[in-house]
Design a protein that fits this description.
Layout lengths: L10 E5 L2 E5 L7 E3 L46 E4 L7 E4 L6 E3 L3 H6 L5 H16 L1 H4 L4 H17 L2 H4 L2
Antiparallel strand pairs: 1-2, 2-3, 3-6, 4-5, 5-6
Helix pairs in contact: 2-4
The structure holds zinc ion (ZN) (2 copies).
The site of one zinc ion has 8 residues, from loops.
């Protein structure tokens, strides 16, 4: 199977009797067949730790705006949705086989999203970047930085942690 994000060939990896497909040496993402993700998404599912740091090539950059195709069914386009209301991570799901693609780092965010303030800040930044575009986040000019700072305060107010981040 080919990686839906970077085109690298996915490699099988067996963790706790579940075989997943990882983009080792590529973008570091992970493909879970239907239901597999459920075995790893809670912090107490210790086996999931083994999947947190798939060896990746730092030079591979994935374009989150590009359509992604299911590596199993090929034609269906993966649908992007939030993992759930409590854990604000965007996942890519196949409408046909219900498999799920996670980009590098997303499993950790799902598992630990009731974690630190830092993660909350990071998620907010990513959200801003997605809503406002990469130009906004990259190389901010003075005024922009200021606006971004204010904006993240507004967002924090609108999405108190106990509602969405826990
Ligand atoms: Zn990849
Ligand atoms: Zn599929």
């Amino acid at each position: 199977m080919k990686c839906p994000a970077c085109g690298n060939v996915l490699q099988g990896m067996t963790v706790a009797d579940v075989s997943v497909d990882v983009c080792r040496g590529g973008c570091g993402g992970i493909w879970f067949d239907d239901h597999e993700l459920r075995k790893f998404d809670e912090p107490h599912d210790a086996a999931g730790e083994a999947l947190l740091d798939v060896q990746r090539n730092p030079n591979v950059h994935v374009d989150l705006r590009r359509k992604r195709h299911c590596p199993k069914c090929r034609n269906p386009v993966l649908t992007r949705r939030l993992f759930n209301a409590r854990r604000h991570v965007e996942i890519d799901e196949c409408p046909d086989c219900a498999g799920v693609w996670l980009d590098y780092g997303e499993l950790g965010t799902i598992r630990h999203s009731d974690g630190s303030e830092q993660e909350h800040q990071k998620a907010t930044e990513e959200y801003l970047q997605e809503v406002l575009g990469p130009d906004f986040a990259a190389e901010p000019a003075h005024g922009v930085l200021d606006a971004r700072h204010r904006m993240s305060h507004v967002l924090r107010f609108l999405t108190p942690r106990h509602r969405f981040w826990h």
